[in-house]
Amino acid sequence: MPGFCRPGMLTWSNLNTNDLHLLVHKAPLSTSLPAANRLAWLVLCLGLLSVLTLLSLTLGAKPISLAVVADSLFGPGQHPDAIIITEGRLPRTLLGLLAGAALGLSGAIIQALTRNPLADPGILGVNAGASFAVVLGAGVFGITSAAGYLAFAFVGALATTLLVYLVGAYGTARLEPMRFVLAGVAISAVMMGFASSITLLNPWAFDRVRFWSAGSLDVRDLDLVLQVAPALLLGIVIALLLARPLNVLGMGEDLAVSLGSRPRLIHATAVLAITLLCGASTAIAGPIGFVGLMIPHIARWMVGTDQRWIMACTLLLAPVLLLASDIIGRLLVPGELRVSIVTAFVGAPVLIWLARRAQPSGSRT
Amino acid sequence: MSPSDYLYLGRPTGPIYLRVRAKGLWAGMLLALAALMLAGLALGAGALELSHAQVWQALLGEGPARLGAVVREWRLPRVVMALVVGGALGMSGAIFQSLIRNPLGSPDVIGFNTGAYTGALVTIILLQGSYFEIATGALVGGLAAALLVYLLAYRRGIQGFRLIIVGIAISAMLAAFNTWLMISASLESAMTAALWGAGSLNGITWDKALPSALFSLVAMMLTLLLGRRMALLEMGDDSASALGVPAERTRLQLMSLGVVLTAAATAAAGPISFIALAAPQIAQRLSRSHGTALLCAFWVGALLLLLADYCAQHLFAPRQLPVGIVTVSIGGLYLVWLLFRQSRLASS
């Protein structure tokens, strides 16, 4: 598959980002994938997503028929099972759709920005910041409510990402994505260190946090979902608007500047989008790893190197993974497996299979 | 670069010919000196404060037998292991970052640490194992994960990008399994597991230390011998082959050495992961070299862990923190500071 011709993908092996423009000229942005092919992938993803949304509403410990689902969502909702739909499955399905899209898109942005396939949204310190704030909330302030955790986690994620951005952008004339990554890694590490020292000395906080840190979609509160929805939707819109600028930036900073784009602005906007997306979804669902890392890779394999197509595909495919994992987690064992655990087992084999099957950059170098 | 930047040992035609970058060498020597001085300090500090002269006497086996026991049997193994474990982690990080040419590289890339944690969790939570059983479980888990990643990534040779992706995938599955074990375990076993997972040198003795120290030292020697080939390999497989370096075989050798180094460190002290990531980065910035500085990475790692362990013991005394927690805090702050300083230098 020619999906690996993305300029950034070539440079992972070459740390010196100044060489980027050399590589770009060897690998033009255009892909050899026909548009019809990409459209077919999108339609397939959309179909999958619709089916999974319906399944997510109907399947569970108690299967509920579509008629009852429709009745409880749009009709009078007199059926005794209506409460399961409105209190349980609707929030969790909505959250699956929103958080999935958010995690996937933030992964796509961070990988485009840092040109590093190891980069996941957590690398900007979002997860570490949220975890640290929750540890503080539980261990120091004695917070117990879900809404309290949500507020702490969101503020923690915002503050940490801001800190990472300041450290990463401080005093540099050129944009250096690698500095962001290192700053994120370093600050995350410090946060994790502080958080662990609090939890290891405080068993009660440890107990709280170990459950919080296994992310789950099962929030059972539509209001909570609606609280974070504006942040998520705003983030999604910004992310989609970033697709074209990121394409241009992918051609190398010098070229991008001469084409009239403003790398610093793009960078700052991208960080804002990631913070909104990843911060809000982590705040409500807890850390759910791997989605943001894996889906953009798969999207690149499917639709090529154009960020617009990658984003569109990610937007549809990431919720597919999240909803599918959530449904599997509900059905597999009686007590439910949390979605953050199932995601890895659903996604990882696909990723390995693709990595072995596709012709990545190795054949070229 | 002018020839005077290098120190030469031996003759170009002779059996021994070593060329060492002077700057890297100086940085290495300074780091080594700092580490040894800190080691002396650590041997003297504790509930029983000792002067330098007393420490020296105790090390030589003179002076009161009681002091000798404190220094040689209690404090020395801990200090030595901090140096060896830290150095081993720093070196293995340097190997992996060079092999996959990615500064995010660390032994985590091939899933070793996550696998080791899985092994330890299974031993602690499901089997309620002892210290040696936990270490064995961690080794088995880590090696199995690394082997699995290597085999799944192997397709007519190992290629960096595929290795990374397969490593991510396997690590993600193992991490998910670990999370599940953690939330299904009792609070007590989960805390025990988390303590092990933080990485700690508390209560280490010669019995526990020696096997892993020996393995580490042998692996370090071999790594240093392969150092030049590693540098050539960074130029790409084709260039390296043209210069007479068998690419695939060298890569396998280096990767195995990296795994052995990590395994030895993990068996002795649990997974202290951050050093492998940060030490090569810090070393590279200290020695101002573009390539990977193996010896420098060793000393940075050793110094970092020793310093962290000193803080872990004495910062909140009498309470002892697991050293891994302090490591990430100190190492992370230092890395942030380096980034700041680098940007000041660049802008001035």
From TrEMBL, chain B:
Location in or out of the cell: Cell membrane
InterPro entries, sorted: ABC_BtuC-like, ABC_transptr_permease_BtuC
One Pfam family named in its UniProt record: FecCD
Keywords: Cell membrane, Membrane, Transmembrane, Transmembrane helix, Transport
Residues in coiled coil: none
Main location: membrane
TM spans (from-to): 25-48, 79-97, 109-128, 134-154, 161-183, 213-232, 252-279, 291-308, 320-340
Signal peptide interval: none
Family matches, as CDD domains: TM_ABC_iron-siderophores_like
Membrane topology category: Multi-pass membrane protein
Record-stated family: Belongs to the binding-protein-dependent transport system permease family. FecCD subfamily.
Listed name of the protein: Iron-enterobactin ABC transporter permease
